Amino acid sequence: MDHVLKKNISYLLILQNFNYIIPLLLLPYLTRTLGAENFGKISFVLAFISYFVMLTDYGFNTSSAQKIVAVREDKAALSRVFWSTTFTKLFFAICSFLVIVIVLRFVPKLDHLSTLIQIASVGIITSILFPVWLFQGLEKMLFITVLNVVPRLLILFATFLFVKQQADYQIALELQVGGAFLGAVACAFLVWQLKIVNFYLPGAKDIKYSITEGWYIFYSGVATSLYTTTNTVVLGFMTNDMYVGIFAAAEKIVRAIISLLSSISQVTFPRINVYYLISKEKALEFGSKLISVLAFLTFIGGLLLFIAAPLIVKILFGLPQYEDSISILRISSFLPLLAVVNGIIAVNILLTFGLKKEVASVVSFGGIFSIILIGPAVLFFQANGVATCALLTELLILILLIRQLKKNKIILKLNFSPLMKTIQKKSLIK
C-alpha cells in the first residue's frame, strides 16, 4: 500500500470515527430528550429530503470522482469536470425545490411536518457546495476530514446546550442541518482560495455529458433508496411518528456501522481504478483483499450486535419506550455484512470493470423486490417488517451480484486465513 493511499485511509478513518462517534453520542440524548414521537418526526423528514439530496448528487460522488482521477494533472480539464458537475447539480437542486413545493401543497399527510421539511431542504444546497467527489478524485481526504469533523463537533456541543426538552425537536434539526451547511460553505471557500480550479462556464453539451455519464450510478442509487430510505418513508406514511422513532433509533446504529465501513470502499475507489489501468489482475487482487477484511469484520460485529442488542437499547435509548428496538436491531445485525460486501462488489469491482448496466439491473431488481414486499411487511409486522424486508433485499442483491461476477468471468480470491491466524495469535498471547 503506497504512502498516499495510507494517508487517505488514515484521514478517512478519523473522519468516519467522528461521523460514527458523534451521532452515537447524540443518539441516546436525542431519543431520550425528544421522545420516540418527535425523534420519529426528525427521522422521517431527513429520510424524505434525502430523495432530493440524492437527485442533486446524481451519482457524481462516483462518476465525477472517476473522471477527476483521469484528469487531475490537467487543470483545464479538471476545471471543466468541476463546473460541469456543479452546474448540473444546481439544475437538479432547482428541480428538487419545485417538487418539494408541489408535494407540500398537495399531500395533507405532510402538513404537520411542513416547517421541518423546509428546514431540512437546506441539505440540498449543502450538496451543491460540498464537492466530496473533487477531493476524492484528487485523493486529498484531509480537507474533507477537517470540514466534516469541525461542524459535527459544533453540532454536538450546541445540541447539548440548546436541546433540553421534547418541544426542542425543531432546534435539533436546525442545528444538524445548519452545521453541515456551514461546513459546505467553508469547503466551497477552500476550493476558491486554493485555486484548485479555474472558472469554466459549461454549455448544454457539458451538462448533458455529465448527466449521461452519471445516469447508471444515479439509477442504481434510486433503486438502492427503494430498499433503504423508502423503508422509513413508507413506515411513516403507513403508521405514525412513534413507530418511525422506534425503528429509526435501531436503524441509525446499523447505518452508522455501514457508513463507517463503506467509506473505506469509497476512498479506495480511485485507487482500484488506478490499479485497473495497470492490470485487471492487480485490481482484482486489491478488491479481494478489501472484501475479505471487511466481510470478516462485519461478520464478527454482527454476532456481537445480535447478542448485545438488549443491553445496547437499554443503555442508549431507555426502556420500556424503545423496547421494540431490540428485535429490530437483532434482525438488522447482519445487514452491515451484506451491505458492505454488496457495495464493494458493485462499485469497486463491477463499476471499475465498466459494468454500469449490470449494476443498475441488479440494484433495480432489489428495489422492485423491496417495494413489493415493504407494504405487506409494514401492514403485518410494522417496524420489524421493515427490518426484515431490508435484510432479505440485501441478501437477494448479493446473490445477483455473485451471479454477475460469474457471468463476466470476474474471479475474486477471498482469503480469511491471515485474519484467523491473527486472532489465534492474539488469543495465545492472552
How is this structure best described in words?
With 430 residues, this protein is mainly α. The protein folds into two domains: 218 residues, no CATH class; 205 residues, no CATH class. Helix content is 85%, strand content 0%. The chain is built from 16 helices and no strands. 46% of the residues are buried.
Show the helix and strand layout.
Elements: H1 3-57, H2 60-71, H3 75-106, H4 114-120, H5 122-129, H6 132-138, H7 141-162, H8 169-193, H9 204-225, H10 229-238, H11 241-278, H12 280-316, H13 325-331, H14 335-351, H15 356-407, H16 417-429
State the helicity in percent bands: over 70%
Label the overall shape: globular
- How many structural domains? 2
Most strands sheet: none
Structural class: mainly alpha
Question: How much beta, percentage-wise?
Answer: under 5%
Mean pLDDT: 87
Low-confidence stretches: none
| Distinct helical segment count | 16
Key structural traits:
430 residues; mainly alpha; 2 domains; globular
Condensed summary:
The chain is mostly helical. The protein has helices at 3-57, 60-71, 75-106, 114-120, 122-129, 132-138, 141-162, 169-193, 204-225, 229-238, 241-278, 280-316, 325-331, 335-351, 356-407, 417-429. The longest helix has 55 residues, at 3-57.
